[in-house]
Recover the amino acids of this structure.
């Protein structure tokens, strides 16, 4: 499978301008990739203003994503603020030219950014299959919590859609590699660049990490771009057979 990560400089609270920027970055990928991954809150930036910025599950941003997926013949995913049943969620949404739609609500809300005071945290993990690859999505701060990310060979690709700041760049670099190694799976981490409306700067460095911990492809720290890398389920399966670390993993239960 070909995976493309779109690293953008998200425009503060401006959905239409963000759609235009993202379309410029995505258009060259039409017919050239299987999966396009966007940063966390790609349509607004990390603004904790859900009353104004949120949408119902199938409104403007969903419609835009579906249009791009159909035109490009690939899956499209990323997170934005969704309003449902009087709650606001930082929701990762996956759409494709086919009918199934998958979503994951961010479990670990960033309390230092007051995300927990205005959004509702998610209560369950998600694993879904797309074009032969089993995928589990997470959002930004989730990266710091290895128990929540843990899998036992049921996942081929873990995605982290993020707004990760420059001040913690080395944490991003280290933990994306760690999650790939400990779960024996591919990890795709996509991050934004630029400075947001709260004057927080972001480090970019989106990457796809091999289960060995090697970087397959990586973007730089300050450039809007898309990067594409290949992952192989067959290669992953062979690696797990030769080195079955997860057979010796500890059993545990997550308390919600």
């Amino acid at each position: 499978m070909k995976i493309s990560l779109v690293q953008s400089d998200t425009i503060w609270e401006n959905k239409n301008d963000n759609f235009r920027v993202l379309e410029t970055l995505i258009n060259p990928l039409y017919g050239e990739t299987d999966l396009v991954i966007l940063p966390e809150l790609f349509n607004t930036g990390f603004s904790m203003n859900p009353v104004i910025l949120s949408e119902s599950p199938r409104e403007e941003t969903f419609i835009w994503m579906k249009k791009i997926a159909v035109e490009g013949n690939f899956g499209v995913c990323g997170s934005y603020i969704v309003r449902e049943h009087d709650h606001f969620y930082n929701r990762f949404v996956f759409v494709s030219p086919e009918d199934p739609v998958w979503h994951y609500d961010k479990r670990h809300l960033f309390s230092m950014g007051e995300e927990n005071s205005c959004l509702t945290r998610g209560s369950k993990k998600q694993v879904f299959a797309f074009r032969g690859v089993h995928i589990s999505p997470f959002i930004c701060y989730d990266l710091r919590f290895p128990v929540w990310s843990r899998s036992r060979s049921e996942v081929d690709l873990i995605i982290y859609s993020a707004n990760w700041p420059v001040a913690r760049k080395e944490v991003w670099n280290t933990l994306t590699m760690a999650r790939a190694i400990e779960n024996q799976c591919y990890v795709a981490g996509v991050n934004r660049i630029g400075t947001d409306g709260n004057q927080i700067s972001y480090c970019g460095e989106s990457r796809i990490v091999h289960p060995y911990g090697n970087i397959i492809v990586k973007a730089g720290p300050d450039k809007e771009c898309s990067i594409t890398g290949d992952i192989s389920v067959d290669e992953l399966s062979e690696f797990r057979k030769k080195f079955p670390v997860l057979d010796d993993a500890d059993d545990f239960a997550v308390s919600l």
